[in-house]
Amino acid sequence: MRRSPRQRDTVSTARARVAASILNADLGNLAHAVKRAEREGADRIHLDVMDGHFVPNLTFGATTIKALRKRTRIPFDAHLMISEPGRYIDEYLDAGCDSVTIHVEIKEPIEPTLRAIRAAGRAAGLCVKPKTPLSALEPYQHLIDIVMVMTVEPGFGGQAFMTDVAKAKLLAARQYLAHKLHGGEIHVDGGVNRDTAELVGGQGVDILVVGSALWLKGRDMAREIRLIRALADEGYQYTLNKGVPPIPRDRMVTFASLRRPQARTLREEVEAAGIPVLLFRASEDPAEMDDEIRHWDVLIPASAEAAAKARFSRRRTALKRASA
Question: Could you report the per-residue pLDDT of 286-304, keeping only the tens digit for each?
């Protein structure tokens, strides 16, 4: 029996994540499409916005996204395939997009739009078409959280996957996010399905945008999402990780156990570097002990543990001494 949304696991055991593109869903009932994708296990909703000018197709805009935002709490990734994103960026931020990716090929200034996205506390991305070199990202690399690589020509769903583009760009795109200790994402968009998932996973992709493969009549969407996620992780494991299974993105590890003042100090410094931190009461102290003097576990994402150790090991040791 299919599980309800409340029965779904809230902690993912996968590294790869699937963003369900609704471009090939029933555009007459997008609310149902979004709820279905969430119910079937998609990690995000990918929103392809086209203006009929930058690409030869016309879809929906900020008003539609704002209406859909009320129907779900799942993250929204907006992919603006439009000529003037700077003119409309406030509307898409107001609509509730959690990340906004624009194209590096547009003719208007790019930096102001990226800064506006980041100032709103959202993730900012740049996308490159198949024929655009990654070097076009260089002037903006310290302003981006996402690099999206198109493996089809943008504009229509259901196109054939460009293997040569994937191999040439996906792994190389990581260098443009080297400034981020945590949270930088490589997205692949175009022709992603069960046949290509292992290849892109082996190129280190974080987010697989999957469209037409999810909306085929009679197909079990939940199974397809699980399969694509698993194949991507297998590709990563055997191509990049020496046969070791990848670290699940939602796994947290204890970075330190400190008394509350020192734990708060470390949390502030680590979060300032871009790594999220959670504080929990440590089990080593009695439950009735005052919160200000008991130990608190400083938890960070397991995927960021190596970066945190490299940056904060000495600081952690100093705070441990102070905590003692």
Answer: 988 998 889 999 999 999 9
Phi, psi angles (nearest 5°) of residue 30: -65, -30
Q: What angle do CA 219, 35, 18 make, to 5 degrees?
A: 65
Residue pair 165/203 in contact (Cβ under 8 Å)? The answer is no
Q: Is residue 58 part of a domain?
A: yes
* Residue 189 is a catalytic residue: yes
Which of these is catalytic: 48, 77, 145, 206? Answer: 48
Task: Dump pLDDT digits (tens) for 15-66.
Answer: 999 999 999 999 899 999 999 999 999 999 999 999 999 999 999 999 999 9
Query: Angle 85-94/62-69 helices, nearest 10 degrees?
Result: 20
How many structural domains compose the chain? 2
- pLDDT confidence band for 190 (50 / 70 / 90): very high
Query: Could you please report the per-residue DSSP string of 179-232?
Result: T-SS--EEEEESS-STTTHHHHHTTT-SEEEE-GGGS-TT--HHHHHHHHHHHH
- Identify the bridge partners of residue 49 per DSSP, sorted by sequence position: 80
* 113: Cβ contacts below 8 Å, ≥ 6 apart: 85, 86, 89, 102
Do 118 and 194 lie in one domain? The reply is yes
**Nearest-10 crossing angle of helices 30-39, 62-69:** 50
Catalytic residue among 43, 145, 189, 206: 189
Among the listed residues 153, 155, 140, the one whose alpha carbon sits nearest the alpha carbon of residue 50 = 155
* H or E element that contains 147: strand 146-150
**∠ CA 155-18-186 to the nearest 5 degrees?**
75
CB distance 235 to 199 below 8 Å: yes
Q: What is the pLDDT of residues 207-228, one digit of tens each?
A: 999 999 999 999 999 999 999 9
* 101 in any annotated domain: yes
Contact call for residues 22 and 60 (beta carbons, < 8 A): no
- Whether residue 183 lies inside any domain: the answer is yes
Domain range holding 209?
5-239
Is 94 one of the catalytic residues? no
